[in-house]
Write a structure and sequence with these properties.
It is a single chain. By secondary structure, the protein is α+β, with helices and mostly antiparallel strands. The protein has helices spanning about 40-50, 55-75, 90-100, 265-270; strands at about 10, 15, 160-165, 165-170, 170-175, 175-180, 185, 190-200, 205-210, 215-220, 225, 230-235, 240, 250-260, 260-265. It has three domains: about 1-50, no CATH class; about 65-100, no CATH class; about 160-270, Glucose Permease (Domain IIA) (Distorted Sandwich). Strands 3, 6, 8, 9, 10, 12, 14 and 15 form an eight-stranded antiparallel sheet that branches. Strand 9 (about 205-210) and strand 10 form a beta hairpin. Helix 2 (about 55-75) runs parallel beside helix 3. The longest helix is centred in the N-terminal third of the chain and has 23 residues, at about 55-75. The chain is rod-shaped. The N and C termini lie far apart (about 130 Å).
Protein backbone atom coordinates (compact mmCIF):
# COMPACT_ATOMS: atom_id res chain seq x y z
CA UNK A 1 0.00 0.00 0.00
CA UNK A 2 1.40 3.45 -0.88
CA UNK A 3 1.69 6.30 1.52
CA UNK A 4 -0.78 9.19 1.13
CA UNK A 5 2.14 11.51 0.64
CA UNK A 6 3.87 9.21 -1.85
CA UNK A 7 3.79 10.83 -5.31
CA UNK A 8 3.73 7.40 -6.87
CA UNK A 9 0.57 6.31 -5.06
CA UNK A 10 -2.98 6.82 -6.34
CA UNK A 11 -6.23 7.16 -4.44
CA UNK A 12 -9.46 5.60 -5.54
CA UNK A 13 -12.97 6.14 -4.34
CA UNK A 14 -12.52 3.26 -1.93
CA UNK A 15 -9.06 4.20 -0.65
CA UNK A 16 -5.39 3.79 -1.53
CA UNK A 17 -4.49 1.33 -4.22
CA UNK A 18 -1.23 -0.20 -5.30
CA UNK A 19 1.26 2.37 -6.57
CA UNK A 20 2.03 2.46 -10.29
CA UNK A 21 5.67 3.25 -10.87
CA UNK A 22 6.65 5.03 -14.14
CA UNK A 23 9.80 3.43 -15.39
CA UNK A 24 12.17 5.59 -17.45
CA UNK A 25 15.39 4.99 -19.32
CA UNK A 26 18.30 5.06 -16.95
CA UNK A 27 20.52 6.99 -19.36
CA UNK A 28 17.75 9.37 -20.48
CA UNK A 29 15.35 10.10 -17.65
CA UNK A 30 13.42 12.52 -19.85
CA UNK A 31 12.24 9.68 -22.09
CA UNK A 32 9.45 7.31 -21.20
CA UNK A 33 10.02 3.69 -22.03
CA UNK A 34 7.70 2.44 -24.71
CA UNK A 35 6.20 5.95 -25.31
CA UNK A 36 6.54 8.44 -28.13
CA UNK A 37 9.43 10.86 -28.28
CA UNK A 38 9.23 13.65 -25.73
CA UNK A 39 8.60 17.26 -26.73
CA UNK A 40 11.39 19.60 -27.78
CA UNK A 41 11.15 21.32 -24.41
CA UNK A 42 11.86 18.03 -22.72
CA UNK A 43 14.71 17.35 -25.13
CA UNK A 44 16.36 20.70 -24.42
CA UNK A 45 15.98 20.53 -20.62
CA UNK A 46 18.92 18.12 -20.12
CA UNK A 47 21.04 20.23 -22.44
CA UNK A 48 20.48 23.34 -20.38
CA UNK A 49 21.11 21.41 -17.19
CA UNK A 50 24.40 20.08 -18.56
CA UNK A 51 23.50 16.44 -17.97
CA UNK A 52 24.00 15.19 -21.50
CA UNK A 53 27.28 16.50 -22.76
CA UNK A 54 27.59 13.99 -25.54
CA UNK A 55 24.20 14.98 -26.96
CA UNK A 56 25.16 18.62 -26.65
CA UNK A 57 28.33 18.01 -28.62
CA UNK A 58 26.37 16.29 -31.39
CA UNK A 59 23.85 19.12 -31.68
CA UNK A 60 26.62 21.73 -31.52
CA UNK A 61 28.47 19.96 -34.33
CA UNK A 62 25.26 19.89 -36.32
CA UNK A 63 24.71 23.63 -35.93
CA UNK A 64 28.33 24.34 -36.91
CA UNK A 65 27.99 22.06 -39.92
CA UNK A 66 24.76 23.76 -40.91
CA UNK A 67 26.50 27.15 -40.80
CA UNK A 68 29.24 25.86 -43.09
CA UNK A 69 26.65 24.47 -45.50
CA UNK A 70 24.74 27.77 -45.48
CA UNK A 71 27.88 29.80 -46.22
CA UNK A 72 28.88 27.40 -48.98
CA UNK A 73 25.42 27.64 -50.56
CA UNK A 74 25.52 31.45 -50.44
CA UNK A 75 29.00 31.59 -52.00
CA UNK A 76 28.07 29.10 -54.71
CA UNK A 77 30.58 26.52 -53.44
CA UNK A 78 29.81 22.78 -53.29
CA UNK A 79 28.61 21.76 -49.85
CA UNK A 80 30.79 19.31 -47.95
CA UNK A 81 29.43 15.79 -47.80
CA UNK A 82 28.25 14.72 -44.33
CA UNK A 83 30.72 12.57 -42.43
CA UNK A 84 30.06 8.87 -42.44
CA UNK A 85 28.19 7.84 -39.34
CA UNK A 86 26.71 11.30 -38.64
CA UNK A 87 23.34 11.18 -36.95
CA UNK A 88 20.10 11.90 -38.78
CA UNK A 89 19.63 14.98 -36.57
CA UNK A 90 22.81 16.50 -37.98
CA UNK A 91 21.62 15.95 -41.54
CA UNK A 92 18.16 17.35 -40.81
CA UNK A 93 19.48 20.51 -39.14
CA UNK A 94 22.00 21.08 -41.93
CA UNK A 95 19.29 20.71 -44.59
CA UNK A 96 16.93 23.11 -42.82
CA UNK A 97 19.69 25.70 -42.33
CA UNK A 98 20.72 25.50 -46.00
CA UNK A 99 17.12 25.89 -47.15
CA UNK A 100 16.55 28.90 -44.89
CA UNK A 101 19.78 30.60 -45.98
CA UNK A 102 19.33 30.11 -49.74
CA UNK A 103 18.25 33.38 -51.50
CA UNK A 104 14.92 33.38 -53.25
CA UNK A 105 15.26 32.71 -56.97
CA UNK A 106 13.16 35.04 -59.12
CA UNK A 107 12.47 34.40 -62.75
CA UNK A 108 14.01 36.95 -65.13
CA UNK A 109 11.75 39.93 -65.66
CA UNK A 110 9.58 39.16 -62.62
CA UNK A 111 9.25 41.20 -59.48
CA UNK A 112 11.03 40.26 -56.29
CA UNK A 113 10.00 40.66 -52.65
CA UNK A 114 9.98 44.41 -52.98
CA UNK A 115 7.51 44.29 -55.89
CA UNK A 116 9.90 45.98 -58.34
CA UNK A 117 11.38 44.60 -61.53
CA UNK A 118 14.82 43.04 -61.23
CA UNK A 119 17.21 45.44 -63.03
CA UNK A 120 19.77 42.68 -63.58
CA UNK A 121 17.25 40.35 -65.20
CA UNK A 122 18.33 39.30 -68.68
CA UNK A 123 16.64 37.23 -71.41
CA UNK A 124 17.13 33.48 -70.99
CA UNK A 125 19.64 31.81 -73.33
CA UNK A 126 18.25 30.04 -76.39
CA UNK A 127 19.74 26.65 -75.58
CA UNK A 128 22.33 24.72 -73.60
CA UNK A 129 25.72 26.36 -73.65
CA UNK A 130 24.28 29.68 -74.80
CA UNK A 131 25.21 32.81 -72.84
CA UNK A 132 22.40 35.22 -72.06
CA UNK A 133 22.98 38.58 -73.81
CA UNK A 134 23.90 41.48 -71.58
CA UNK A 135 21.18 44.08 -71.12
CA UNK A 136 22.51 47.63 -71.42
CA UNK A 137 20.69 50.40 -69.55
CA UNK A 138 18.85 52.92 -71.70
CA UNK A 139 20.95 55.96 -72.44
CA UNK A 140 19.60 59.31 -71.40
CA UNK A 141 20.99 62.70 -72.22
CA UNK A 142 21.32 65.35 -69.50
CA UNK A 143 20.62 68.00 -72.15
CA UNK A 144 17.02 68.59 -73.20
CA UNK A 145 16.55 69.80 -76.77
CA UNK A 146 14.78 73.15 -76.95
CA UNK A 147 13.37 75.23 -79.72
CA UNK A 148 15.40 78.20 -80.90
CA UNK A 149 15.04 81.16 -78.56
CA UNK A 150 14.98 83.64 -81.48
CA UNK A 151 12.77 83.00 -84.51
CA UNK A 152 11.90 84.82 -87.69
CA UNK A 153 8.39 86.27 -87.55
CA UNK A 154 5.96 87.57 -90.22
CA UNK A 155 6.22 91.28 -91.00
CA UNK A 156 2.42 91.70 -91.22
CA UNK A 157 -0.56 90.35 -89.31
CA UNK A 158 -1.94 88.88 -92.56
CA UNK A 159 0.31 87.57 -95.32
CA UNK A 160 -0.86 87.79 -98.94
CA UNK A 161 1.85 87.65 -101.62
CA UNK A 162 1.22 89.88 -104.66
CA UNK A 163 4.61 89.82 -106.43
CA UNK A 164 7.61 87.46 -106.27
CA UNK A 165 11.38 87.83 -106.43
CA UNK A 166 12.91 87.84 -109.95
CA UNK A 167 12.56 89.53 -113.34
CA UNK A 168 9.68 91.98 -113.68
CA UNK A 169 9.08 94.61 -116.40
CA UNK A 170 12.54 94.16 -117.84
CA UNK A 171 14.43 94.53 -114.58
CA UNK A 172 15.08 92.46 -111.47
CA UNK A 173 12.57 92.70 -108.65
CA UNK A 174 14.82 92.19 -105.61
CA UNK A 175 12.11 91.46 -103.09
CA UNK A 176 8.61 90.18 -102.39
CA UNK A 177 5.48 92.33 -102.20
CA UNK A 178 2.83 91.72 -99.54
CA UNK A 179 -0.65 93.16 -99.77
CA UNK A 180 -1.45 95.64 -96.97
CA UNK A 181 -3.80 98.50 -96.22
CA UNK A 182 -2.37 101.93 -95.55
CA UNK A 183 -1.71 102.24 -91.84
CA UNK A 184 -1.35 98.48 -91.17
CA UNK A 185 1.49 97.88 -88.66
CA UNK A 186 4.75 96.58 -90.12
CA UNK A 187 6.96 94.43 -87.87
CA UNK A 188 10.66 93.58 -87.79
CA UNK A 189 11.10 90.00 -88.99
CA UNK A 190 14.12 89.40 -86.70
CA UNK A 191 15.94 91.21 -83.89
CA UNK A 192 18.54 93.74 -84.96
CA UNK A 193 19.67 97.35 -85.19
CA UNK A 194 17.99 99.96 -87.37
CA UNK A 195 20.63 101.30 -89.79
CA UNK A 196 18.32 103.37 -91.98
CA UNK A 197 14.87 104.93 -91.37
CA UNK A 198 13.57 107.58 -93.80
CA UNK A 199 12.95 108.51 -97.41
CA UNK A 200 14.92 106.64 -100.09
CA UNK A 201 13.96 107.48 -103.71
CA UNK A 202 11.86 104.72 -105.30
CA UNK A 203 11.53 102.90 -101.94
CA UNK A 204 9.60 105.80 -100.43
CA UNK A 205 9.74 105.61 -96.64
CA UNK A 206 12.26 102.83 -96.02
CA UNK A 207 13.48 100.95 -92.91
CA UNK A 208 16.67 98.85 -93.06
CA UNK A 209 17.59 96.54 -90.15
CA UNK A 210 21.00 94.94 -89.63
CA UNK A 211 20.63 91.46 -88.04
CA UNK A 212 24.33 90.62 -87.85
CA UNK A 213 26.41 88.11 -89.81
CA UNK A 214 25.96 90.23 -92.95
CA UNK A 215 22.14 89.82 -93.00
CA UNK A 216 19.89 92.87 -93.54
CA UNK A 217 16.14 93.25 -94.20
CA UNK A 218 14.39 96.07 -96.11
CA UNK A 219 10.80 97.34 -95.57
CA UNK A 220 9.68 99.86 -98.24
CA UNK A 221 6.74 102.07 -99.36
CA UNK A 222 5.64 102.80 -95.77
CA UNK A 223 3.29 105.66 -95.01
CA UNK A 224 5.12 106.32 -91.72
CA UNK A 225 8.32 105.20 -90.01
CA UNK A 226 8.21 104.77 -86.19
CA UNK A 227 11.88 103.94 -85.50
CA UNK A 228 15.17 105.84 -85.90
CA UNK A 229 18.71 104.78 -86.88
CA UNK A 230 20.50 103.11 -83.95
CA UNK A 231 17.31 101.72 -82.39
CA UNK A 232 17.45 98.12 -81.18
CA UNK A 233 14.34 96.24 -82.28
CA UNK A 234 12.97 92.84 -81.37
CA UNK A 235 11.47 90.31 -83.72
CA UNK A 236 7.81 91.21 -84.04
CA UNK A 237 8.34 94.78 -82.85
CA UNK A 238 6.58 97.50 -84.89
CA UNK A 239 8.86 99.60 -87.07
CA UNK A 240 6.47 101.35 -89.50
CA UNK A 241 2.96 101.67 -90.95
CA UNK A 242 2.24 100.29 -94.41
CA UNK A 243 1.60 102.73 -97.25
CA UNK A 244 1.96 103.64 -100.93
CA UNK A 245 5.03 105.91 -101.07
CA UNK A 246 7.83 105.95 -103.67
CA UNK A 247 7.45 103.98 -106.91
CA UNK A 248 4.31 102.13 -105.94
CA UNK A 249 1.00 101.36 -107.66
CA UNK A 250 -0.96 100.61 -104.50
CA UNK A 251 -0.63 100.19 -100.78
CA UNK A 252 1.68 97.27 -99.96
CA UNK A 253 4.95 96.30 -98.22
CA UNK A 254 8.04 95.60 -100.32
CA UNK A 255 10.34 93.23 -98.37
CA UNK A 256 13.95 92.31 -99.21
CA UNK A 257 16.67 90.14 -97.63
CA UNK A 258 20.32 91.01 -98.30
CA UNK A 259 23.20 88.68 -97.41
CA UNK A 260 26.71 90.10 -97.73
CA UNK A 261 25.31 93.18 -99.50
CA UNK A 262 23.51 91.17 -102.19
CA UNK A 263 19.71 90.56 -102.42
CA UNK A 264 18.61 86.92 -102.12
CA UNK A 265 15.29 85.18 -102.69
CA UNK A 266 13.41 86.17 -99.47
CA UNK A 267 10.90 83.31 -99.30
CA UNK A 268 13.53 80.60 -99.67
CA UNK A 269 15.78 82.27 -97.12
CA UNK A 270 12.94 82.59 -94.59
CA UNK A 271 11.83 78.97 -95.20
CA UNK A 272 15.36 77.70 -94.51
CA UNK A 273 15.36 79.78 -91.31
CA UNK A 274 12.12 78.23 -90.10
CA UNK A 275 9.53 80.73 -91.38
CA UNK A 276 7.68 79.45 -94.44
CA UNK A 277 5.35 82.14 -95.88
CA UNK A 278 4.67 80.39 -99.18
Amino acid sequence: MGNATDPEARLSDTGPVAAYTIRRHAARPHRTRGQHRASWAAELTPLLAGTQRRYTAVVGSAVAGASVVAMAATAGLPAEEPREGASQAVSDIAALAAEASAPEQAAPGTTGATGTADPAAAPAPDGPGEVAPAVEPARTSPVTAQDAQVKWTPMLDRITITSLFGQRWGRNHNGVDFDAETGDPVYAAYPGTVVYAGWESGFGNLVVIDHGDGVETYYAHNSEVVVAPGDQVEGGGQIANAGNTGHSFGSHVHFEVHVGGQPVEPLNYLAESGLDLR
